[in-house]
Each structure stands twice: as C-alpha cells, then as structure tokens.
Write a structure and sequence with these properties.
The chain has about 260 residues and is of the alpha+beta class. Helix content is about 20%, strand content about 30%. Strand 8 and strand 9 form a beta hairpin. The longest helix has 13 residues. The two termini are about 40 Å apart.
Amino acid sequence: MSEFIRKKYKITIAYDGTDYGGWQVQPNAISIQDLIERALSLILRIPISIVGSGRTDAGVHAWGQTAHFVTNRWIDQNNLKNRGINISKTIASLNRLLPNDIRILEMIEVPLNFHARYTAISKTYHYRLHLDTIPDPFKISYAYHVPHPVDLSLLTDATSPFIGTHDFTSFANGANRGSAAKNGVRTIKRLDVVQESGGVRLEFEGNGFLYKMVRNIVGTLLDICARKINKEQIPLIFSAKDRRLAGRSAPPHGLSLIQVNY
C-alpha cells in the first residue's frame, strides 16, 4: 500500500546576478531559476518547477529572493516517517550543486495555499549609489558609480513625491504589457536615503513594483540631481502615464532585492 503526499516548500535565495540573464528561465541565457530547478530535480529525483516572488533582471542581485515548489509523491505506508523531504540535507545538497554565487539560505514547509508571488504583501529593494570621485573596484559590481555630482539634500527632497499610492505607469518599461497594462497603481511605503561608506543606498519598500520601476525612479531622481528634470515636474510625469517623460533607467548592478514580506 502507498499514499499520495503533496507538500509545498518555500525557499529563500541569495545571488549575485552579474553573470546571469535574470531570475526567469529563458532560451538564450543562464537563469537562476533554471539552475535551482535542475539541482532540485536531481536531488529529489522528480521533476521540480519553482515559482519566484517576481523576476529580477539581468545583473540585478538578491539577498532575499523567495520561491516555492511542490512535491508530489507516492509514499510506502510502511515508511511514512519519510512523508516530507529532509530539509537540512536538501539545502546542503543544493548549495554543493549550485554555483558559488547562488545560495539557498532557508527552506521551510508551508501550507498548500501559500504562493511566493501572490501571498506577498510587500517587498524591499535597495539601490546603491557610489559617489566617491574615484570608483572603488570592490563596489563596481554592486553600486552605480554616478558620473556627476549628487546633491544629497536635493536627492532626499525629491523622493517625497514618490511615496504613497500612485499610478506608476510613467516609471515602468513595457507599460502596455503584463500587470502594468491591467493596473499601474502601486504603493511605496517608504523611500529612504541612507548614507553609507562611499555613497548612499535608496531603500524602497512597497506592495509591488512594475517592470524596471525602481531603476526608472532612481534614474529620474539622478536626472533631477543633474538638473535635467525639475522636481516640480514629477506630478505631471505621473499624470501623463508616459515612460518617455520620466528620467533615465539606472543600470541593473546597483539594485538588490533585499526581502519579500508575507
């Protein structure tokens, strides 16, 4: 006699996105999702698909990406103590198989109604700006070295119009596709400018983010600091729902997904 057992697990992942085409499986580049799925399938000896909390683009990093996967197994009733997977051994095996720039930090069993993307209530991203005159070779992969002066007082002041609930269509790439086409409204709970050695980090916490929204907001803030955009234009940019009116897109390597909250 055997019993069919269905279980769901949440994993927390850290990765350096420098050498990858992004989180999502794609035909022409190596992705973080694909490598984890292959490793899990090998360890558990069944095909495994994982669902992430959201995509990160090529070059974007994560300290706390989350994903879930489901195992469906027929278990011998004479050995029911093995209903689930051995979590600690699975984490260790995954981290042996995966490249050194991808680490599984945690794995826990979750209810079957948990969803890595749809159960999330907020996410936190950090964008690092390297402001020293001479680029630090130990920061160039994780912070954007801004090629012009940045007035920190102006930068901080310019963040205020982005906090709250707005239609962020003007700050999204592909605004006519995906979730942005259905609803561009998102809520940014906080956007803090935190000084750190050699520069600052912009801490974004919101209930969700459109495609390249964080990078486009950072680029707009930098264009304000470069006097290419006036801060007073921001409400007009919001109302226009036109990406062309907002500022540049900051490069991906300064961005990290820090935490997904449930």
